[in-house]
Amino acid sequence: MAGAAAVKEYNFQWEGTDRKGSRVKGVTQGPSEAMVRMQLRRQGVNPIRVRRNIELFSRKRKITSGDISIFSRQMATMMSAGVPLVQSLEIVGRGHENPAMSELILGIKTNIESGRSLAESLAQYPLHFDDLFVNLVDAGERSGTLETLLDKIATYKEKTEKIKKKVKKALVYPSAVMVVAFIVTGIMLYFVVPQFQSLFEGFGADLPAFTKMVVSLSDVVREYWWAMLIGIVGVVLVFGYFKKRSLKFRRFLDRVGLKFPVVGDILYKSAVARYARTLSTMFAAGVPLVEAMGSVARASGNIVFEDAIMVMRDQVASGQQLQLAMQQSTLFPPMAVQMVAIGEESGSLDQMCAKVAEFYEDEVDSLVDSLTSLLEPIIMAVLGVLVGGLVVAMYLPIFKLGQAI
Questions:
Q1: What's the whole-model pTM score?
Q2: pLDDT tens digits for range 328-343
Q3: Helical residues (DSSP H) of 192-348, grouped into ranges
Q4: Are the CB atoms for 203 and 401 separated by under 8 Å?
């Protein structure tokens, strides 16, 4: 169901007459003019003119996982307040600040009005609603507990978004600072050092070795900056291509990432937290364990964990206990294995997994804070060496000249 192709929706302006013969007009979303006319007739409107809007300059921004998380919470709140599903979608869709997200929500509403279930409508947009989301909604619709399941989905999305932001903060902050440092260094080598170089030529004396090295580096940067720029862009593009297209390359990156000092610990514990959080949510929703494991694997965010969880799923399907499968994988920490064992024995697997998730989410929080505190002096030292080294190299001949005088 989640593998269905996404149906592209467009805005259509229409004019027509209602059942009383009164003139009406409005804007409706649909995949084609014919489908929009059919929708209008179902609603008791006789369409006279239907025209697709052509947007030359779109204000739409990309739909993010944060948008989906907010949508989940809004729907959970509306449904728990007793607002009907279609009306909830109408209110949330019309009030969303992101036009692309608004278009998506109203497209889901249109699908439901045409007779599809909410799960089937969400499955039309697999880029934004994964198997886990669709399966949980489907379970809620089948059991008549859609409001409860939407609340669980919203909580799950909020927790996973929080931990995702923490991991991004740990990785992006030092990377951004280092990129800025190298850009500043490049600018100094290209523009500032040559100004000093012309000054040094009038000294008529040998330059210190450190200054000679910096001047030579500046000459290389000025002569071959275009080749360096092409090389950097090429490396980034090739990296992005293989990361997106090559499963072996992604597996290599995920495996190496787990072995990095501090950062690897953050990636490892965040994967364990996502595993436990997803399993808890799926099991609490009444999804059978073996069926849930597929969605749990894909939600782990790491191919190493995904492969291990798929092996565990086969072991559980053959009758083995989950805690034994986790233990044999040698990937999960003993604390998580023991908590799952207690959950299986007591019949409270969802609650125990939720506690595991909370524990490792807190661990990730504290690790990210520790990493930030640790990196700040390291980053300052690197910046000092790069920028300060260039300044010292440029002023060293001037100091020596002053001593000679």
A1: 0.69
A2: 998 999 999 999 999 9
A3: 193-201, 209-245, 247-257, 263-284, 289-299, 303-317, 322-329, 334-346
A4: yes
